[in-house]
Structure formats: C-alpha cells, structure tokens
Design brief:
Layout: E1 6-10, H1 23-35, E2 40-43, H2 55-69, E3 75-78, H3 84-93, E4 101-105, H4 114-125, E5 132-136, H5 138-141, H6 147-156, E6 160-165, H7 170-179, E7 185-188, H8 194-200, E8 204-207, H9 214-225, H10 229-238, H11 240-248, H12 253-261, H13 278-291
Parallel strand pairs: 1-2, 1-8, 2-3, 3-4, 4-5, 5-6, 6-7, 7-8
Helix pairs in contact: 1-2, 4-6, 6-7, 8-9, 9-10, 11-12, 11-13, 12-13
C-alpha cells in the first residue's frame, strides 16, 4: 500500500460565517494541500469536525471531495464511531467511488475492553469493501488500542492494512514495529513526533498542520523516508512552535486561523469549538511570517 506512504493530510471542513459548509473554501484548501506535494488526503477525520456534521453534509463533502481531487492523489474516508452497528450501517451506505481506504477511530466514550475494541474492528473488517486503517487516539477516545490488540488485528485481517498511532507511547510503538506483519502500515498521528516515528519504521504521517504548510511537511517526511535525517531535522525543528500553536486553543481552530491568514478559507468552527484567542492568533500570524 505504497499510496499511503509519505504525508497524508486530515482535511479541515471550511464553514461560512453562518455555519454552512463552504464548498468553495473546501476546494481551495484541497488545491492548496495537493499543490504542496502531499501524497494523500483524509476526508472527514477529526480535523474535519466530523462530530458536528450531519449525514447529508458528510455525504456531500465526500462527494465534492472526490470531484475536487479529481484523481490527483489517493483518498481516505474517516468512518468511525462508538456504536458498532451504526458504523457498519455508515460503511454499507458509503459510496466508495474515488476512495482507497477507510480510517476508523477506536470507539470513544464507552471505554470498551481490549476484547471489545477487537470485536468492533473485526466487525468492520468483515463488512467493508475498502481496506481499513485503525486509529488510536486515546487523548480523544478515553481508551487506548493496546499493542497486542493492534497486532492481533493486523495478523488476523489482511484488509486491516495499518494503524494511525496518536498515543504518544513509544513503548507501544516498539512492540507494534517489532511484531507487526510485513507490509502493515505504521503511521504517525502526531505531527511533532513524526520524525522519530519514521526513524522507528513509520511510513509517514496523517497531519493536521499539513492543511496550512503542506510543502514543509511533505519535504520533511520525504527526507526522513530516504533516511536523510540530517537535512530533515531543521524542517522538523522549524515546525515545533507552529505546531504547538495549532493546538493551543483547540484543533482545528488553530489551523483554520492559519488558513485564513494565508487567504485560503475562513476560520469559522462549529460549537462547541470556538475561534482562537487574539493572543494565540497574533502568535500564529508571527509564526507563519517566520516560516514563509
């Protein structure tokens, strides 16, 4: 699955000031990201504010995204949730045209056991026409997919092709990398640790900051994948302060503010998210000037 090596970007969902989806803004964001040289896009992951979109909006965003991308890069659809039955129904009703895989977040809020997490992904694997990338983000879900569970899924289901790991647990990373099947994709889910994760064997990142700075992100990841960490390190370090600011007042409020400063789309977010404070906004603007 070389199409998912490199930099993927979890695309934001632009909104008009009144809260409606801004499809012109979405097209502009997609063109900006692809123009920066990334390898693939993720439509309606966490960064796309999926939790505040209804079914009709999701369906239209997925369709328009295929139209806007127009075959230029592979596409991944974010389809997950904490109600397994509803996730399976969403997958059954999903128009796979133009999509290459599904990214499915671990069930949140319920705090399932490891067996519950395994059975959730087993049900998805047995009922999906597309390959699946599992997504471990305990900071949002309230539970973590253990290394043993990830490996069990990886070995038992050939259509579970990888994991997006955002646990920050390097001990867990070690065990996954040591015992994963050949070809199983280990993907960074945290921009700041992408470089060390690639050094361990990760194939790239699904990025938030790549919405605003796709070229720097893609260049850094490509250097890492070539083993040229000496030249990758300056790019990595140049992004640290900017990345911190992207999450200082919540994500994707930070990266949407950056996109507004770049003239690509507005920075409206849907409640319960709010816009960044003036102080953080000023710091983001200064950081962008430094990186441009």
């Amino acid at each position: 699955m070389n199409k998912f090596s490199g930099t993927g970007v979890a695309v934001v969902t632009p909104f008009h000031p009144g809260g409606e989806v801004d499809f012109e803004g979405l097209e502009a964001v997609i063109n900006h990201i692809i123009g920066g040289g990334v390898e693939y896009l993720v439509s309606l992951g966490t960064t796309g504010e999926t939790a505040t979109l209804n079914k009709d909006e999701k369906r239209e965003i997925w369709k328009r995204t295929v139209d806007f991308v127009n075959g230029r890069v592979p596409l991944v659809a974010g389809i997950g949730g904490n109600n397994t039955h509803e996730v399976l129904k969403s997958i059954k009703n999903f128009d796979t045209t133009g999509y290459d895989a599904i990214l499915s977040v671990s069930p949140y809020y319920n705090k399932p056991t490891q067996e519950g997490i395994y059975q959730h992904y087993k049900a998805i694997a047995e009922n999906t026409p597309l390959p699946v990338i599992i997504y471990n983000v305990p900071g949002r879900t309230g539970s973590s997919i253990g290394a043993d569970t990830t490996l069990r899924l990886a070995h038992n289901f050939k259509n579970i092709i990888g994991t997006k790991e955002a646990s920050g647990n390097f001990d867990q990373f070690n065990y996954i990398m040591k015992d994963k099947p050949e070809g199983f994709l280990f993907i960074s889910g945290d921009d700041p640790v992408t470089l060390p994760m690639i050094a361990m064997g990760a194939v790239g990142v699904i990025s938030v900051i790549g919405n605003a700075l796709p070229q720097i992100c893609a260049d850094m990841v490509r250097l890492c994948l070539k083993g040229d960490f000496v030249n990758a390190q300056p790019l990595h370090y140049s992004l640290i302060d900017f990345t911190d600011l992207m999450f200082a007042d919540g994500s994707p409020a930070g990266v949407k503010y950056a996109l507004k400063q770049l003239g690509i789309c507005g920075d409206t977010v849907r409640l319960p998210l709010v816009n960044v404070s003036k102080a953080i906004g000023d710091n983001i603007s200064a950081a962008l000037q430094k990186l441009s």
